């Protein structure tokens, strides 16, 4: 596919623990290489669990470890956890990886919109971080952002994607108009007074 390629196989071991019991550990390194040559390496030992794909959307798109976007979800999960690249780039990579995995353009765009609006988001942008007053917290993993879009607005966007096939930039602009964003700092990272 023109949107990139995967290198290696997704070989995982289910980790046993209480609760949802969804964590899996990669036994072999795995990678996605974008059409632009950017490498998205996921090391052996990384833990993935599908959490970067909002569970609400599993009924629309299927669960993250089944079907044509399962490899894309592994890479997306890892980079949403380590946050070494901007959220926007990680979500764009997810779109390209979905396409490389065989997901149709329209479905991949809808999935991209879902992870952009409802999935993990963060920023390393110094101006944004400073405006929230969290300068000292943005060293390596940036500042987590809680994002929310009304479900009616999202479903309207999804329908528009299916009818008009907008570009990713047009989807981003539409999401930006309807997205509410607030910083979400884990308590252990809040400076003590």
Automatic annotation (TrEMBL):
<protein>
    <submittedName>
        <fullName>DUF1353 domain-containing protein</fullName>
    </submittedName>
</protein>
<dbReference type="Pfam" id="PF07087">
    <property type="entry name" value="DUF1353"/>
</dbReference>
<dbReference type="InterPro" id="IPR010767">
    <property type="entry name" value="Phage_CGC-2007_Cje0229"/>
</dbReference>
